[in-house]
Amino acid sequence: MLSDCIDTVELRVLASGNKRRRTRVDASSLVREFERLAAIIAGDSGNSGEPSVGLTIDVRFDNGSEGLPCVDIKLDGQLNLACQRCLRPYGFPVNLESRLTILSSDAQSSQIAEPFDSVVMTTEGLNLATVIEDEILSALPMAPIHESIAECTGIGDARYETKNESGKPNRPFANLASIMDAVGKDRLD
User: Fold this and answer.
1) Cα(13)–Cα(36) distance, rounded to whole angstroms?
2) Is there a smaller number of Cβ atoms within 10 Å at the N or the C end of the chain?
3) Domain total for the chain?
């Protein structure tokens, strides 16, 4: 259901008052369908290198107060993201609830109440997987990091230093101050 586009007729059936449809999906295996999300998910800390996703998606269709179809999306679980300090995976909790009014054109946006978000169907229909992926991506932090620096492993470890041919640690900026001083003196002369 997530990978198929939902056309206007099917959407009307899904959202109709007598046949409301609720779908619960374990998205652990669907991360490959979410291409943009898969690109930022960190691999397991195990040997497999496979992305780790523990995410459940609950989708419900109904009609909103304006008579337009709506979709309620509830996401619960955890995604492994790469910490921007230590570059190691860490579990980021995802708990998100969204109610989106589904519009067939931008012109319909004047018909909905202000507090609701909306999504406009394309000519192919509503791609639910793209909508869900957009909601997940909007909930993620811009720069994911562990909550405390103590959780970051490997920062400052000697084993991560690069060494030159003589076996001494490579410190490319060690002589920068003397170079800057020499350049400054030349300009004064």
Assistant:
1) 30
2) C
3) 2
